[in-house]
Specification:
The structure is a single chain. It contains 14 helices and no strands. The protein is mainly α and about 270 residues long. Helix 3 (about 65-75) runs antiparallel to helix 8 (about 160-175) and helix 5 crosses helix 6 (about 115-125). The chain is globular.
């Protein structure tokens, strides 16, 4: 079962990625939340180019990724769940929750540590907020994130299916909660108790530091509420708020070459 899962993982993840990307792009077209000011071709071509570069960097740097390591851990009895023989019906959902909490803590860390923020700020420097913002990450940040994830998988020993579920959910929820889509306010208030919604996460992309340092969750919204980093709405409202950071605000800064060099640029 695990070997079959490992063999099909790339196809499963690619189909899920393309399906969610297409669905969110169509939703943005039919019911946008904010007016688009920058040509879609400029932002999409460069943001999606980063996805390809990130994939190549992962392939070169890591001979094994999280699902593969989970299979290996199960075979060798590594990790907490394997050591205690935790049944799957407990290990699978608990693994997804623990991995999501780890990503929340990692996100907080990337904002708090100046050297890590220089990498992560490229994600925040997008001048608009749509589905491609959810996959706009610097390759070095992606590599560091994978390293942390592999360490946690080795220590926890989660089932391979749980890791695959988490990876697909994380990618899908990142594209969903970065999408420029309109969701009725009453529906949004209910949804954000079980998942991070676009209106909830958009606050995190505010140019104001006090708003950017809130709503760190990608998938589950509980951590922000429990740990005091939750902010319901931006001061200027979702239509009036300014997105991005206080630098790198030209259209030329949206090109992939500038984005890759951005962590080492001061202006």
């Amino acid at each position: 079962m695990d070997e079959m899962l490992l063999a099909r993982e790339p196809v499963i993840r690619l189909v899920a990625f393309l399906g969610v990307l297409a669905a969110m792009a169509l939703w943005e077209l039919l019911a946008p939340r904010r007016r688009r000011e920058i040509p879609r071709l400029l932002r999409w071509s460069n943001n999606l180019a980063l996805v390809a570069l990130d994939a190549v960097a992962l392939r070169i740097a890591f001979p094994i990724v999280a699902v593969g390591l989970a299979v290996m851990a199960e075979e060798h009895g590594w990790g907490l769940f394997n050591a205690f023989g935790t049944p799957g019906w407990i290990a699978v959902p608990l693994s997804v929750v623990v991995l999501d909490f780890a990503i929340y803590l990692q996100h907080v860390l990337f904002h708090a540590v100046p050297a890590l923020w220089r990498l992560h700020r490229m994600h925040h420097a997008d001048l608009e907020f749509d589905v491609t913002t959810g996959v706009r990450f610097h390759p070095v940040e992606i590599l560091l994130s994978m390293g942390l994830k592999l360490g946690l998988v080795a220590a926890l020993g989660p089932p391979a299916i749980a890791v695959l579920i988490f990876e697909v959910l994380l990618n899908a929820s990142s594209m969903f909660n970065h999408s420029n889509i309109h969701i009725p306010a009453r529906v949004d208030r209910l949804l954000r108790w079980i998942v991070v919604t676009p209106d909830m996460h958009r606050v995190h992309h505010s140019v104001l530091p006090e708003e950017a340092n809130s709503n760190y969750g990608f998938n589950l919204p509980w951590w922000d509420r429990l740990l005091g980093t939750y902010r319901a709405q931006p001061k200027s409202g979702h239509l009036g708020m300014t997105l991005g950071i206080d630098r790198f605000r030209t259209r030329r800064d949206l090109w992939v070459d500038r984005m890759l060099l951005q962590p080492w640029r001061r202006r």
